TrEMBL record:
Signal peptide: 1-15
Keyword Transport: no
Top-rank lineage group of the source organism: Eukaryota
UniProt KW keywords: Signal
Claim: Signal is one of the keywords in the record: yes
Protein name, UniProt field: Lipid-binding serum glycoprotein N-terminal domain-containing protein
Pfam families the record matches: JHBP
InterPro entries hit by this protein: Haemolymph_juvenile_hormone-bd, To_sf
Length: 223
């Protein structure tokens, strides 16, 4: 959920600009690079990105989850580098690789109640998650009727994770064990299943982007 929300935030900021329609691929790539630089400058004004409250509820018969996070902050969203950029005019598609050196998500207060396969998990405390060297691989095709994107593909990877969570089962010793275990296991899990996870979240992110982004087009005469 958090990854989906973050990608949608980034995509919204990236696309909420003037996008030219041109016939020269190199010129379009230059325009996209310029747009990304402007996006970074704009995001710097909102870094950290603050979400006052976030609530997630799941009840599908197998998992029951109620989760509330207050004072959520995402640090480092403006410090990214576009490592690769490829534009294809026919059909109109874009592929980009974006790298973040460091992203930190902090939750000032969370409240968790979950039951999965008759195993309960609950907690009330705070959480800090720091990830280093995050790489997002994004590709999508342009859609003109309706205006937006389609066939979005996402993949991601990261090097290290450092998780600190308090209040799980109201037991700080257990919280430390879980923090250490997730910090050790999660990078390998993401490296192994990053493509699969990306496929699972691509469609929800695509729908969210198309619902939120008002793309303004500036038409350039064809050369």
């Amino acid at each position: 959920m958090l990854l989906t929300y973050f990608i949608a935030i980034f995509a919204f900021a990236s696309a909420n600009t003037v996008v030219p329609i041109v016939s020269t691929r190199g010129f379009l790539e230059d325009q996209i690079n310029n747009t990304l630089n402007k996006v970074a400058a704009d995001l710097a004004k909102k870094d950290p990105y603050i979400i006052p409250e976030l609530t997630q509820t799941i009840d599908n018969g197998t998992i029951r989850l109620n989760f509330t996070a207050k004072d959520m902050q995402v640090h480092g969203i403006s410090k990214f580098v576009a490592k690769e950029l490829k534009v294809t005019m026919f059909p109109p598609t874009i592929a980009i690789v974006i790298a973040f050196e460091n992203l930190t998500v902090s939750i000032g207060e969370y409240d968790l109640s979950m039951k999965a396969s008759f195993v309960p998990l609950y907690g009330h405390g705070n959480l800090t998650l720091t990830s280093q060297n995050i790489v997002l691989n994004c590709s999508a095709a342009a859609s003109f009727s309706p205006l937006g994107i389609k066939d979005l593909n996402l993949g991601f990877n990261l090097d290290t994770v450092d998780l600190h969570v308090t209040g799980l089962l109201n037991n700080e010793g257990f919280s430390q064990i879980i923090s250490s275990a997730i910090s050790e296991v999660l990078p390998g899990y993401v490296q192994k299943y990053g493509v699969v996870i990306g496929k699972l979240i691509s469609k929800p992110v695509e729908d969210l982007i198309n619902d939120l982004i008002p793309i303004k087009l500036t038409r350039v005469k064809m050369i």
